[in-house]
Amino acid sequence: MAKTIKKELFNPLVSIVIPVYNGSNYLREAIDSALAQTYKNIEIIVVNDGSTDNTEEIVKSYGKKLRYFKKENGGVSTALNLGIKESKGEYISWLSHDDLYYPNKIEKQINKLSDIKSENRNITIIFSHFDALVMDSGKRINNFEKILYKNMEDPYYTYSMLDCFFSSKLNGCTLLLPRCIFEKFGFFDLNRKTIQDYILFITFFKCGIKYIFLDEVLVISRHHKEQDTSRKMDIHLCELNFLYKWAFDLFKDKFQEMPMWQFNHFLKIVKKRGLDKVYTHMLSGWACKQYSKNKINIWMYWENELGKRTPDYIYLCWKSIINYNCNDFNIKILTDDDIDTFLPKINKKYLSLSKIAHKADYIRFNLLYRYGGIWLDSDFVSFRSLLPVVEKINKNGFVCMGYQQKNRKFFPLIGFLGTKSCNPVFKKVILNIDNYLNKKNNIREQPKWDEIGGLNLGKYINNKNCYKYDSSFFCPHEVQFHGSVPECFNSNDNFSLFTLKNNQFAFGQNIANSVLSEEIKNMTEDEIISSKSFIGDLLRFGVSTNYPIVEFNSVSDDVPMIKSKVEIRKMYSLYENTKLSLKRKIKDYILISFYKVDKIVPKKIRRKVKPKLIKYSFVRKYLIK
Hints:
This protein has three domains: 2-242, Spore Coat Polysaccharide Biosynthesis Protein SpsA, Chain A (Alpha-Beta Complex), CATH 3.90.550; 255-473, Spore Coat Polysaccharide Biosynthesis Protein SpsA, Chain A, CATH 3.90.550; 515-587, no CATH class. The strands form four sheets. The chain has a six-stranded mixed sheet with strand order 11-10-12-15-14-16, sandwiched between helices. The chain has a five-stranded mixed sheet with strand order 3-2-1-4-8, with helices on both faces. The protein has a four-stranded mixed sheet with strand order 5-9-6-7. It is elongated, with a radius of gyration of 31 Å. Helix 10 (233-250) runs parallel beside helix 13 and helix 16 (356-371) runs antiparallel to helix 18. It is α/β, with parallel strands linked by helices. Helices cover 38% and strands 16% of the residues.
């Protein structure tokens, strides 16, 4: 009885605001659904945003049952704002002219609100499920999206609300909002055409307004070709880019608290919408969760060819780098917008370079000269932290990989570079490229492959100013040694930084401090072979005597297995013996290129298994936590 009296006492006036522009096809049904509400303490406000059809005639046919305002066309935001300002109710409920309320919409929400402490009602928004009705087909789509949290104190509350915003689970017409929060925090943004609702609702959330979810369907959202999001798709996509970047930056601290597996849910949302730059922005922002000026930067950059999207494998590579290095480094995945931010004085003539690789060459040299750090091409996959590279940078000032040419000179491969800032070598390289750009008036005359990259850098490298890693650790088939390491390299220090060339894996030597060694050091030989460890998989899924050739995804029954225990013991002894030749060891992986990963699998397997399955399962299973 006490509860009934409480609800009877809580009987606030609710203003239903219906903005309309040329909506005569749907308006009457929307108004009727508002008038049919079982909760009777309501006022209905219709704002005509300069319609040129018979909207006014329809509205006036209802007489004094509703309040009517007419204005010049200015967009839905202006109409909503006018309706809210003219309203007399304590609470606002927005109804689009083409949507419908179920009869108990307001009553259910007022009842839910009455269960809340009176002092919290003016800072609480109630929202619910909605159905979607496709007008062209007449098909009704049940929109029972899963909402994790049950109340405001639930540990999933923040995550679920961010999910609602990013996944568009929140429909503005399902909301019941206190009128006072508009006066306190602002109205709908007049400069936005399709996202003005989400900008305001996210702002309310950021300002501490509580959202309570009512697990019932109370609204029908009708979808048709005349809606703004359908007619203004180019504008909508542009505004979505802004919305997601803005929302991520607004709640960056909350996103950075999430583990990768949880944050990945939000990355999938923006990827599904085709917002590649937003994806890059969010992933890079998440990776910088522990930014420090004392940490070295890892720089990565990817630019798509015109009309193409970022390949999925590039995203996987980025995630692997972040997974193992975000605690030890400042990781920045660059977009075109970031170039102007980090390099405001860069020579804009580099944009005349037609090849993306040449643009990337110029960008990498400028970034490393100004800020220092490690540059990685975006097709690298990480197996563990790159901290050993930092030791070499601190000691030598500059590190790179490369190989000895026939003339015994060193040729650098610039997919991996590490340096301190203001390195004079990089200054000379940049000046050379600037001179090239300033002299080449004809933009059709493009540099030859590697002319401004490796060939340019190679002029200034010597044993005194650079620590050089043997590229056989990156491309073993390209350079094969028998005996000692060539003279052009600093030492026999076989650091394990890897890429893939000519269909072969490469691997380095330093096992003593490896993560893999720690993983299996207390295990017997049989335990290793039967375990789910990385080394166990190497042994089980086939290892050649020269290079590991491994199928990490057993999608085929024909995966080659090591047949005899003699072979297994042989490979295990190779792993233990750190003094064996480079070509006869299972070594400590750190990085490897995603490029052509499928080619390492024997041909008879490749014929039966899709290359993508081999590539993607390898990275997902072993590298992405």
